[in-house]
Amino acid sequence: MSPAEVLMHLIRDLNDALLANPFDAGLKTTCTKFGRLLRNIIATVDRFGSNQRYLNKHKLEVAEFFDEMIGQVFESDVATTLSNRMTKYRRELFTLPRS
Question: Is 71 contained in some domain?
Answer without folding.
Answer: yes
